[in-house]
Amino acid sequence: MSVPLADHYFTRQADRMTLLTSIKTFLAKHNPAD
Questions:
Q1: CA gap 10, 4 in Å, rounded
Q2: Rounded (5°) CA angle 13-16-5
Q3: pLDDT of 1
Q4: Residues 1-34: tens digit of each pLDDT
Q5: Rg (the chain; Cα; Å)
Q6: Phi first, then psi: what are they for 17, rounded to 5°?
Q7: How far apart, in whole angstroms, are the C-alpha atoms of residue 29 and residue 24?
Q8: What pLDDT is attached to residue 17?
Q9: Could you give the CA distance from residue 27 to residue 4 in angstroms, rounded to a whole number?
Q10: Cα–Cα distance between 22 and 19 in angstroms, integer?
């Protein structure tokens, strides 16, 4: 995953949403909550 304009702290809301959505997708695939 790459977020070109993101800084180290994910200051921008759009960058945080991209990060969190990617994490959610990854966890749903690799660590389902069954």
A1: 11
A2: 80
A3: 85
A4: 899 999 999 999 999 999 999 999 999 999 988 7
A5: 11
A6: -65, -40
A7: 9
A8: 98
A9: 22
A10: 5
Cα–Cα distance for residue pair 8/16, rounded to 1 Å = 11
Looking up tokens 């200051």 gives: 11
Quickly list DSSP for 1-34: ---TT--TT--SHHHHHHHHHHHHHHHHHHS---
Q: What pLDDT does 9 receive?
A: 95
> Does the model's pTM come out above 0.90?
no
Could you tell me if 28 and 13 are in contact, meaning their C-beta atoms sit under 8 angstroms apart? no
Which tokens in the block code for residue 24? 């959610």
